[in-house]
């Protein structure tokens, strides 16, 4: 059975490329799996794919052991932009058993999405280092929402 394509990556007014609905998407609908090469946290830390200074990342923490690196073998999910008032969320799905490489991340709609609307989710970025004004600027948010915090960095949890 042919399923019409529901999303398309193209230029975004938020930042660079974005992903847009081509058809209506229902609340709760699973839209796309976030794909890329699985790498250990140590492998990612050893190169510049996760450079804190860039303000740009295609890395998605899968679990305590692995990161999905959409710089390598990534799909259109890597183009979904951050928003402080998102219409989607990233949902981790832990596989049965002990094989953490079988875990997956999906993007699902948290409300109904109209055709032409850009898909967004909150990246939930927390950095180990202090969130200085300079880092908040590097990780500036451009979502344009009235609820925008001005940064993609999430507040650190109190200890």
Commentary on this structure:
The chain is mainly β. It has one domain (7-138): Beta-clip-like. It has helices spanning 41-46, 133-138, and strands at residues 7-11, 17-21, 30-33, 37-40, 59-61, 66-69, 81-82, 88-93, 104-109, 118-121. Strand 1 and strand 2 form a beta hairpin. The radius of gyration is 16 Å and the shape is globular.
Note the main attributes of this structure.
single chain; 159 residues; mainly beta; globular; three-stranded antiparallel beta sheet; Beta-clip-like
Question: Which CATH C-level class is it?
Answer: Mainly Beta
Mean pLDDT: 90
Strand content: 25-35%
* CATH fold group: Beta-clip-like
Radius of gyration: 16 Å
What's the number of domains? 1
Characterize the overall form. Answer: globular
Please work out how many helical segments DSSP would assign: 2
**The CATH homology group name:** SET domain
The helicity comes to under 10%
Poorly predicted parts: none
Encode the helix/strand succession as letters: EEEEHEEEEEEH
Q: What is the terminal separation in angstroms?
A: 52 Å
The count of strands amounts to: 10
Sheet with the most strands, sense and barrel status: 4 strands, mixed
Query: Would you identify the CATH architecture?
Result: Beta Complex
The strands making up the biggest β-sheet line up spatially as 1-2-10-7
């Amino acid at each position: 059975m042919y399923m019409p394509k529901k999303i398309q990556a193209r230029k975004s007014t938020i930042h660079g490329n974005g992903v847009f609905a081509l058809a209506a998407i229902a609340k709760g609908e699973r839209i796309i799996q976030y794909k890329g090469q699985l790498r250990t946290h140590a492998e990612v830390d050893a190169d510049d794919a996760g450079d804190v200074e860039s303000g740009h990342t295609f890395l998605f923490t899968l679990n305590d052991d692995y990161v999905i690196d959409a710089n390598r073998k990534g799909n259109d999910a890597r183009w979904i932009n951050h928003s402080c008032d998102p219409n989607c969320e990233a949902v981790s799905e832990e596989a049965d058993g002990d094989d953490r490489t079988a875990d997956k991340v999906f993007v699902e709609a948290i409300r109904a999405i109209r055709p032409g609307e850009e898909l967004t989710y909150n990246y939930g970025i927390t950095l180990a280092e202090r969130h200085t004004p300079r880092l908040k600027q590097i990780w500036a948010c451009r979502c344009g929402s009235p609820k925008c915090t001005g940064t993609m960095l999430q507040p650190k949890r109190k200890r």
